[in-house]
Amino acid sequence: MDFIIRAAKPEDCKDVFRMTMELAVYDKMPDQVKISHKELEKDGFSANPLFQCFVAEVPEECRSKEGYTKVGYALYFYTYSSWKGQSVYLDDLYVMPEFRGKGIGNALLSKVATVVKEQQCVHLRLTVLDWNTPSQDFYFSKGARDLTTSVGWHLLTFDGEALDKLAKEAPKN
Amino acid sequence: MDFIIRAAKPEDCKDVFRMTMELAVYDKMPDQVKISHKELEKDGFSANPLFQCFVAEVPEECRSKEGYTKVGYALYFYTYSSWKGQSVYLDDLYVMPEFRGKGIGNALLSKVATVVKEQQCVHLRLTVLDWNTPSQDFYFSKGARDLTTSVGWHLLTFDGEALDKLAKEAPKN
User: In angstroms, what separates the C-alpha of B71 from chain A's closest C-alpha?
Assistant: First the structure.
């Protein structure tokens, strides 16, 4: 199938948001989506963008059942490690179900990897859910290592009341 | 014990790097440190800093056995979630062993939490090693949730040859 991978533009944000919702449903967490395409536009396309994004686009004649030509995306941002310097984190990699198995996910992931190399970053990181074996199989087939099972890294979060309480305890100086 | 928490300056990078090494030794991964204080200076104090940092400083009369007055640090950066918008990731939180149990780690963590709230971010995330129960106990006592054990998020990485190979597969368009 013909497709292109290109940097996202502000006008792609409605499609990216639509697919973000599809991904959240796939991840069984649709209630976790708290922002809209307007925030994506503002956050990704200001003077200091908070993320970068590639979209996968197919020609009109290959559009989806519902008429979409933007059928996948990869959303990433720069991170930092005091041990290794700048790096890249892949927040989302998504391809609509009817377009899977055609190399689009692979092309999106590889495009992000070229950014990692061009920016002389040492690694590309991401998180995946333990029950999501199709995604795990895909990433492992491309050479990913699981730092949770192999090294023991666990992801922790402070949010809600715990975060509020923590902030209130801060020294004033 | 008297101490202050303040934003790091370029001239603190030698001390931050020293403590980064101490932390890597504690984490049993000293070989993972690939950058020096010069990179920290460049990366953290340019026009578009790649990270932010707080240092904990004690008065001269309380200095460490080796004569250090900068005895802890918290290094963090901004991240993004397509579901929740901007957020903060705490890369390192460290207090020198002889200064632990005096509220310095708590003050550093709380200072970062104030940034999270001021910037209207929804969460503060970090990773911790599964064998590092002292750090886990500290974070859990402050209300952190383990997203690996509770939700199933695993951290994956592409680096070295796998990353090189991935980048070479990218479509040229």
Answer: 16
Catalytic hit among B73, B76, B94, B139: B139
Give residue A118's pLDDT: 96
> Residue B80 to residues A9, A42, A88, B110: CA-CA distances in angstroms?
17, 13, 11, 21
Partner residue facing B113 (CB), from A81, A110, A158: A158
Query: Would you state the pLDDT for residue A33?
Result: 87
Mean predicted confidence (pLDDT) in B140-150? 97
| Cα–Cα distance measured from residue A156 to residue B148, given in angstroms and rounded to the nearest whole number | 7
What are the structural domains of chain B? 4-146 (3.40.630.30)
pLDDT at site B32: 85
| Cβ within 8 Å of B, A 48-77 | 48, 50-51, 75, 77
Q: Is the pLDDT of residue B173 over 70?
A: no
> Measured in whole angstroms, how far is the alpha carbon of residue B119 from the centre of its chain?
18
pLDDT at B117 over 70: yes
| Token pair listed for A117 | 């190399």
What's the CA gap between B166 and A109, in Å, rounded? 8
